[in-house]
Design goal:
About 20% of the residues lie in helices and about 30% in strands. By secondary structure, the chain is α/β, with parallel strands linked by helices. Helix 1 packs across helix 4. It binds uridine-diphosphate-N-acetylglucosamine and calcium ion (CA). The site of calcium ion has 4 residues, from loops.
């Protein structure tokens, strides 16, 4: 049977009090929508549609390559699904899985379990049991335990439905497309919110005598919806603790584990050592024997075995080779490549720059668009002047060169192997291999005025 998944992500997220669409709010550095998308990938691959509306352009550009459907007015979750119908029909879909985009803890296993339980049903939805049903839609069952409706919290009438049981709608549905086509036009917005609720499909399908199932998916948090800053913080803490737990199981050394934040996209090998607080975000990779001290932030960076990242360092799309030393207070920006045993010290910034084997830039330096050989010493206060106001230019420094302190290297410029630059120089021309360049005013000593 042809199945397509639909992620509902058009809502404003009013309760988040943010200009950002809710599904772009981040959990451990990744937008919520990414987690939902990834949980669907094993079963649905590319057969996924995302319904967007509020600030649709922001979501579309953050998720380039995905298939989008626009819901121009946010008239409710049922209305959102209706906007996806033409696209679903066109893709020859027979069964649709619909999931709220604000469920960042959704797991691929939960999706697979739900799909299995929903097999053969006309309409199925996932339920969870909570001590307090809160703002979730309440599941109403008849005396025999068959589902009869989902009633939204705001519309719940105790006199009519009795005390809620704690079983609530988790916001994941599977529906036969032909049934959705019949029932969606019948939805009404005569309710407390004035919205077309997807949840009303349940009561309508039951009235039609269809096979409707409420699939119990436990009582864990993996299906929790995020509607407020508090829920976002809860979801993030939940995921953080589970990632950290996995790292401890695996054999990663963690100090102050409660303060360690590692993205589920990152890999940290057994025998790596992390000191909280620290953040290892994106697709970062930390090898066995590497050490990340407290107050460091790494994003999409690779740290090899035996390398040490000292406190207060910030790395983004950087590579740190075996046994290299970074920081404290270093900044490695995209394209920074530190080869084996190299050193980068305090207040040193690298951007699109390679520092060769064993080379050192230990203090107060900016190296941008630079290719630096091995065994090079970069003195304190060296700056590659790579930007002329219009274009960027490269600096090339040969093996074993020695750059004196407070040197400005005005790019494009090349320094040969074993070149030596006197402190305080402004280098604008090539320095050939093995030569000494001094480019500064000569010192004059004059009698002091009395
Ligand atoms: C919804 C369910 C509720 C369930 C809960 C689970 C309805 C009516 N209620 O409530 O039964 O317990 O999820 O978390 O569905 N959206 C659109 N277009 C719209 C409105 C919403 O795409 O016009 C999207 C939102 O971006 C969000 C999702 O649908 O990702 C759910 O909407 P939300 O407003 O969060 O619904 P809840 O009130 O949480
Ligand atoms: Ca929600």
């Amino acid at each position: 049977m042809n199945m397509t998944a639909v992620i509902l992500a058009a809502g404003k997220g009013t309760r988040m009090h943010s200009d950002k669409p809710k599904v772009l709010q981040t959990v451990l550095g990744e937008p919520m929508l990414r987690y939902v998308r990834e949980a669907l990938r094993p079963v649905f691959g590319d057969r996924v549609l995302v319904v967007v509306g509020h600030r649709a352009d922001m979501i579309e550009s953050a998720f380039a390559g995905e298939r989008f459907v626009r819901q121009t007015e946010q008239l409710g979750t049922g209305h959102a699904l209706m906007q996806a119908l033409p696209e679903l029909r066109a893709s020859d879909c027979q069964m649709a899985l619909i999931v709220n985009g604000d469920t960042p803890l959704l797991r691929a296993e939960t999706v697979a379990h739900f799909m299995k339980e929903a097999e053969g049903a006309d309409l199925a939805f996932a339920t969870i049991s909570l001590d307090e049903p809160g703002a979730y839609g309440r599941v109403v069952r008849d005396d025999e335990g068959h589902v009869s409706a989902i009633v939204e919290a705001r519309d719940y009438d105790m006199a009519r439905y009795g005390a809620p049981t704690g079983e609530v709608n988790a916001g994941m549905y599977a529906v036969r497309l032909s049934l959705a086509e019949t029932l969606l036009p019948r939805l009404s917005n005569a309710n407390r919110s004035g919205e077309y609720y997807i949840t009303d499909l349940v009561g309508l399908a039951v009235a039609e005598g269809r096979d409707v199932r409420g699939v119990q998916c436990g009582c864990d948090e993996s299906l929790m919806g995020v509607n407020s800053p508090r829920e976002l913080a809860q979801a993030e803490e939940c995921l953080r603790a589970s990632v950290v737990d996995g790292l401890l199981d695996k054999g990663v050394l963690l100090h102050a584990p409660a303060l360690v934040r590692v993205s589920p996209l990152a890999t940290v090998e057994a025998g790596a050592e992390l000191f909280g607080p620290c953040e290892i975000l994106g697709a970062s990779h930390v090898e066995r024997g590497a050490r990340i001290e407290s107050c460091c932030v790494l994003r999409d960076s690779h740290v090899c075995a035996g390398a040490e990242i000292r406190s207060f360092s910030h790395l983004e799309q950087a590579q740190v080779g075996q046994g290299a030393l970074v920081g404290p207070y270093a900044r490695l920006r995209p394209g920074a490549v530190l080869e084996r045993e190299s050193h980068v010290g305090n207040f040193v910034e690298l951007k699109k720059a390679r520092l060769g084997v064993g080379s050192k830039a230990n203090h107060l330096t900016y190296l941008g668009d630079a290719d630096i050989g091995s065994g090079v010493n970069i003195g304190a206060g060296t700056i590659t002047c790579n930007y002329d106001g219009r274009n960027k230019h490269r600096t090339v420094i040969g093996d074993r060169a020695f750059i004196g302190s407070n040197t400005a290297l005005v790019a494009p410029v090349t320094l040969g192997e074993d070149a030596l630059v006197g402190a305080g120089s402004v280098i604008t021309h090539e320095v050939p291999a093995g030569q000494l360049a001094v480019a500064r005013g000569r010192q004059k000593n004059l009698p002091r005025r009395k």
